[in-house]
């Protein structure tokens, strides 16, 4: 395997199309059921859901940075970070994203944005301080691969609709607790119960689909980082160090940023070994094994 500009991952593209199609079908059914049960006008339903989706689409990078507490930094504030990302963007043939720093000791990073021209990469203070420059470069190349693969947008929109289903689930529960009404057929089940069941089913299916895509996209980004830098061993070292350092971080600090776990290069709940279907990321051991195979193909040290 020769070092080359980041290319398309056919497996990732197929999974993104499949996941997007299944999620789209799921949400159409979801909206139709709610439209029928809540007796809301079709135009109003489309306007509300479509408006929220468009808002998420155009503001995804700003919302993600705000949610993580990241602060955008310019070349004067973080010259080394800008120089490093600039070199990697030149290698990957990608436009320069916005850069941001999160003031936390947790070593991590994530990418967000609707496309390569409207993207952002955020790194934590802990990542910059705890890792060597070559390891940081491997992590940044991983995040740029997410941008180049455009999987960030799919994850953002999919997560948004899953969140909407979750909000409706809580709304239905509260309605039931405080006396939710019944439909036009007073002998039928109450509206809140129908909404609750539909929302739970939608959220559960979305949850599994999103996590299946999330795990594969991490492998694809790891491979992309190896191609961009030509040194997969640097990312291997970074993953091992981040995983090890995470165990030393106080739980209080980890909880402050856990809402970004689906986007981080390594989730903050790495200590909790959940079932495979529930994980947002592949086990670190499997990622290292895949990178080791790439390194062997490239003739690099493992």
Distance between the termini: 15 Å
Largest sheet: 4 strands, mixed
Radius of gyration: 21 Å
Low-pLDDT stretches: none
Class from secondary-structure proportions: alpha+beta
Helix content range of the residues, please? 55-70%
Q: What is the overall number of helices?
A: 10
Total strand count, please? Answer: 4
What order do the helices and strands come in, and which of them pair?
Elements: H1 10-38, H2 42-68, E1 70-72, H3 79-92, E2 98-102, E3 109-115, E4 118-124, H4 125-130, H5 133-149, H6 151-177, H7 191-229, H8 232-246, H9 251-257, H10 284-298
Parallel strand pairs: 2-4
Antiparallel strand pairs: 1-2, 3-4
Helix pairs in contact: 1-6, 1-7, 2-6, 3-5, 5-7, 5-8, 6-7, 7-10, 8-10
What does this structure look like?
Helix content is 65%, strand content 7%. It has 302 residues and is an alpha+beta fold. Strands 1-2-4-3 form a four-stranded mixed beta sheet, with helices on both faces. The protein has one domain (10-298). The chain has helices at residues 10-38, 42-68, 79-92, 125-130, 133-149, 151-177, 191-229, 232-246, 251-257, 284-298, and strands at residues 70-72, 98-102, 109-115, 118-124. A hairpin with a 2-residue loop joins strand 3 and strand 4. The protein has ten helices and four strands, in the order ααβαβββααααααα.
In short:
By secondary structure, this protein is α+β, with helices and mostly antiparallel strands. It contains 10 helices and 4 strands, in the order ααβαβββααααααα. It has one domain.
Keyword list:
302 residues, alpha+beta, 4-stranded mixed β-sheet, 10 helices, 7% strand, elongated
């Amino acid at each position: 395997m020769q070092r080359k500009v980041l290319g398309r991952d056919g497996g990732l593209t197929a999974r993104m199309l499949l996941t997007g199609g299944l999620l789209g079908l799921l949400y159409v059914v979801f909206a139709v059921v709610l439209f029928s049960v809540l007796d809301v006008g079709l135009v109003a339903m489309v306007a509300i859901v479509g408006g929220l989706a468009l808002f998420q689409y155009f503001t995804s990078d700003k919302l993600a940075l705000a949610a993580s507490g990241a602060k955008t930094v310019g070349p004067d504030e973080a010259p080394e970070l800008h120089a490093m990302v600039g070199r990697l963007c030149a290698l990957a043939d990608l436009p320069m994203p916005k850069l941001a720093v999160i003031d936390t000791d947790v070593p991590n990073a994530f990418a967000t944005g609707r496309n390569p021209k409207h993207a952002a990469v955020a790194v934590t203070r802990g990542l910059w301080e705890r890792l060597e420059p070559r390891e940081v470069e491997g992590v940044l190349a991983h995040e740029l691969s997410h941008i180049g693969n455009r999987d960030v947008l799919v994850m953002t929109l999919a997560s948004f609709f899953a969140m909407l289903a979750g909000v409706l689930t809580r709304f239905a529960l509260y309605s039931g607790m405080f006396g939710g009404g019944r439909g036009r057929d007073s002998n039928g089940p109450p509206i809140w119960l129908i909404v609750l069941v539909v929302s739970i089913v939608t959220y559960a299916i979305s949850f599994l689909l999103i996590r299946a895509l999330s795990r594969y996209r991490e492998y694809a980004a790891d491979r992309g980082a190896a191609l961009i830098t030509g040194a997969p061993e640097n990312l291997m070292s970074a993953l091992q160090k981040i995983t090890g350092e995470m165990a030393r971080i106080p739980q209080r600090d980890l909880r402050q940023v856990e809402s970004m776990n689906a986007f981080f290069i390594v989730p903050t709940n790495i200590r909790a070994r959940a079932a495979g279907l529930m994980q947002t990321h592949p086990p670190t051991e499997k990622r290292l094994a895949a990178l080791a195979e790439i390194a062997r193909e490239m003739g690099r040290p493992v």
